[in-house]
């Protein structure tokens, strides 16, 4: 009963005051949003009220932090959604502490960006749909961006209506968000119509979304869009044709490999690898010498995914060409092709002056599985570049040759934490009893990893975790990362072996 009463009060507050804020004039900046404390519904938790009140601060940093904090509450912060929606037009810059699964730090952002993220996390559609009717195009654009992640009644019709907004930025945001979430049928027809919009951004956004929907009704309109005068539109149309994977898309993708715009060639090189037609490999091989580095990399990547034996010779030639572009991607592709002809060129590439090439050559040799690469990889394990050394350790683990045990055990003593990690991982893959003592010593001296508080995911395994897993793989025992227990068991096992 109490929850129903609060819900009605929230809806009343939104209808009487929230919409007045959302429909406010077209001011681009809101340094101090007009949010009165007496409009906050009664009965909310005090900590939620405090964060909502901070949204009216004159400090952009405080407004951004408040939006961030409300977003972390998720659906529990639904009463704050109307007030956050009012900040969709707040373009003020601020520097905030950011949290992600693999990074905690500081970065410059904008208040509206934090409001968008918070509203996506909260997932309450009505206040955001109301924001689509704001007089401020920046608010409408932000609302369309939020709705890309929110389902519910009215979302798809609201976005379809926004495709006719007078502001091209709003139309483009709506087109990007219309992936069919919550709709009984994907909104293909409105997006096809948007391919004829006067704005290239809108046409490109519509083309991209049609690729995500992957409805074959869009193939013919996308074929026409692939001939658009704007390069971005052509690129997105070609990518979508690749995602839909209709045979009708192959011819324009092959033709686009010769497009004068490198962005278009790059899109074609990325997507044409999804087709197995005999014309694909020669066409991609020709792009390995493209004047644009990204096109070369995309062509090599597609050839690697195809794994066609016909690609090996042109890939090896591109790897040997020291003046070539994107040679790291060529090395990676040769590893994926898994052809023994690539072993010697990749071994030679371990000594390349370009450390990216040497690094990916090491990784490729690990995938090829030829033990002729063991000694060269051991040399790379002692090289000057940290990333090459780490990749060499990983490759040696995949090869599983016992010659690598002593050098990898030596790497456990180094200052490079990442190298210790990959060396321990490799020793677990090789499974030699000679690695037990070095791994226990590593556990005895390796500090406990810090465990960061992360909102979107847990901590990754650290050196101790990998060392403990390696010991388990080698011995069949499991004492976690408890060094004392491993030491006691190992001493007992050695004493028993000596008595025998």
Can you offer a commentary on this structure?
The chain has 28 helices and two strands. It is mostly helical. Helix 13 runs parallel beside helix 15 (262-271), helix 17 runs parallel beside helix 19 and helix 25 (417-430) packs parallel to helix 27 (463-475).
Short characterization:
With 500 residues, the protein is mainly α. Helix content is 60%, strand content 3%.
Give the SSE layout.
Elements: H1 2-22, H2 46-54, H3 60-72, H4 81-86, E1 93-100, E2 103-110, H5 111-122, H6 125-131, H7 137-146, H8 155-162, H9 168-177, H10 188-194, H11 200-213, H12 219-225, H13 231-244, H14 250-256, H15 262-271, H16 280-286, H17 293-306, H18 312-320, H19 327-337, H20 343-349, H21 355-368, H22 374-381, H23 386-399, H24 405-411, H25 417-430, H26 436-445, H27 463-475, H28 483-499
Antiparallel strand pairs: 1-2
Helix pairs in contact: 2-3, 3-5, 5-7, 7-9, 9-11, 10-11, 11-13, 12-13, 13-15, 15-17, 17-19, 18-19, 19-21, 20-21, 21-23, 22-23, 23-25, 24-25, 25-27, 26-27, 26-28
């Amino acid at each position: 009963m109490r929850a129903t009463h609060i819900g009605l009060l929230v809806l009343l507050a939104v209808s009487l005051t929230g919409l007045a804020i959302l429909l406010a004039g077209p001011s681009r900046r809101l340094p101090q949003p007009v949010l009165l404390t007496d409009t906050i519904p009664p009965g909310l938790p005090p900590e939620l009220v405090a964060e909502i009140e901070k949204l009216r601060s004159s400090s952009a940093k405080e407004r951004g932090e408040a939006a961030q904090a409300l977003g972390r509450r998720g659906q529990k912060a639904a009463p704050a959604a109307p007030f956050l929606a009012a900040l969709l037009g707040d373009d003020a810059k601020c520097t905030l502490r950011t949290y992600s699964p693999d990074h905690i730090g500081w970065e410059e952002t904008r208040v509206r960006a934090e409001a968008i993220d918070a509203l996506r996390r909260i997932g309450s559609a009505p206040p955001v749909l109301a924001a689509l009717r704001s007089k401020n195009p920046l608010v409408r654009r932000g609302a369309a961006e939020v709705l890309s992640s929110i389902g519910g009644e009215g979302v798809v019709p609201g976005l379809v209506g926004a495709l006719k907004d007078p502001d091209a930025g709003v139309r483009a945001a709506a087109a990007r968000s219309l992936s069919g979430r919550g709709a009984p049928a994907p909104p293909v027809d409105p997006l096809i119509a948007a391919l004829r919009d006067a704005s290239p951004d809108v046409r490109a956004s519509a083309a991209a979304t049609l690729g995500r929907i992957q409805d074959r009704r869009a193939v013919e309109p996308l074929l026409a869009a692939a001939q658009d005068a704007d390069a971005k539109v052509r690129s997105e149309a070609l990518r979508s044709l690749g995602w839909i994977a209709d045979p009708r898309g192959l011819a324009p993708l092959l033709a686009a490999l010769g497009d004068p715009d490198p962005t278009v060639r790059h899109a074609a090189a990325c997507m044409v690898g999804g087709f197995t037609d005999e014309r694909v490999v020669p066409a991609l091989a020709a792009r390995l010498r493209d004047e644009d580095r990204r096109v070369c990399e995309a062509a090599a990547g597609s050839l690697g995914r195809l794994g066609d034996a016909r690609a090996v010779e042109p890939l090896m030639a591109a790897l040997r060409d020291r003046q070539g572009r994107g040679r790291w991607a060529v090395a990676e592709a040769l590893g994926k092709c898994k052809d023994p002809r690539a072993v010697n060129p990749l071994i030679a590439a371990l000594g390349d002056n370009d450390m990216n090439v040497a690094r990916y050559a090491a990784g490729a040799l690990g995938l090829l599985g030829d033990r002729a690469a063991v000694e060269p990889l051991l040399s790379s394990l002692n090289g000057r570049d940290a990333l090459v050394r780490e990749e060499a350790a990983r490759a040696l683990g995949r090869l599983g040759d016992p010659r690598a045990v002593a050098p990898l055990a030596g790497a456990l003593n180094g200052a490079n934490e990442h190298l210790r990690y990959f060396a321990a991982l490799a020793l677990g893959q090789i499974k030699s009893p000679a690695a037990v003592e070095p791994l226990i010593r590593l556990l005895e001296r390796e500090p406990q990893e810090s465990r960061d508080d992360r909102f979107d995911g847990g901590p990754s395994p650290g050196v101790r975790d990998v060392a403990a897993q390696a010991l388990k793989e080698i011995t069949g025992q499991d004492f976690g990362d408890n060094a004392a227990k491993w030491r006691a068991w190992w001493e007992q096992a050695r004493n028993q072996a000596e008595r025998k």
